[in-house]
Amino acid sequence: MALALFRRRSPLGGPRGGAGLVLPLPAGAGGVSRTVTDPLGHPLGGADVTVTSTESQRIAAQGTTDPYGMFSAMLPPGNYSMMITAEGLQPHRESVDIVPDAMLPMADVRMESAPQLELPPPGIWLFDPPHTAIRFIAKHVGMANVHGRFTRFDGGIRVEHEMERSSVEVRIDASSITTGNKTRDNHLRSADFLDVENFPYLHFASNRFIYRGGTKWTVQGSLTMHGVSRTVGLDTTYLGAVNGGYGEELRCAALAKAELHREDYTLNWRSMLARGIAVVGPTIKLELDVQAMYRSHDTPTPPE
């Protein structure tokens, strides 16, 4: 694991090669630094950097570049793989050999523009349940995270010639919630939470696709849960379209995330906490890892 992680600008105007970057190295540790720039050569802040041990395949250091495009880490000696990623740019990967008691010379990494992903052709795309996941993360009484998912759902995407006019709809069987704990799952299905007897489905229907640049979109729509509808914006990353799968079907994929507030849909969280039944916290992170298969331009918009 990393002994330390730094993101700072050099306090000294030393020569290139890292002489101006001063990092205190623990005995036996080594260091690596990179200055990351965009395709125009400007400092690129906010790029994601992950350093992985080649031997153990474990992440040894992880962070983002500072406003000056700099990233530095101190690591045990060994061989590492460094991956640098940023929205709209091609990922950069390199091998790094860390030696004890030495800071490797500073090096520049100039990121290149990524090729634009071709949008899926117009028509109806049905979700493929075996390759689609609807997951959520919530706090367990303010402590550890609870990870869960819904196992039964149907839906799809209608892609229009103008992508902004496209739509997506999904219906989720509320009783299919699972967190790996039977007692908790039964409680989540009860009237304290989802109340599946009275509200058997969660339903999302979009009303707007908003382009954010690169592969990023916001899919805005209405989420109905527990009999209450609220506007939700899904932060969506389009992952591309390929011919693949068992029948070489045309498929597209996307990853969408949102943050929900349980008080918008269910009983008051504070009153539930006072009653000793708040097994999950008030904020829930929702993630949809979607793979959809192309059908035809005249297929009815799912679900029926």
Automatic annotation (TrEMBL):
Pfam families: CarboxypepD_reg, YceI. Residues 124-293 form the Lipid/polyisoprenoid-binding YceI-like domain. SMART domains: YceI. It comes from the Bacteria. Signal peptide: none annotated. Belongs to the UPF0312 family. PANTHER family: PROTEIN YCEI. This is YceI family protein.
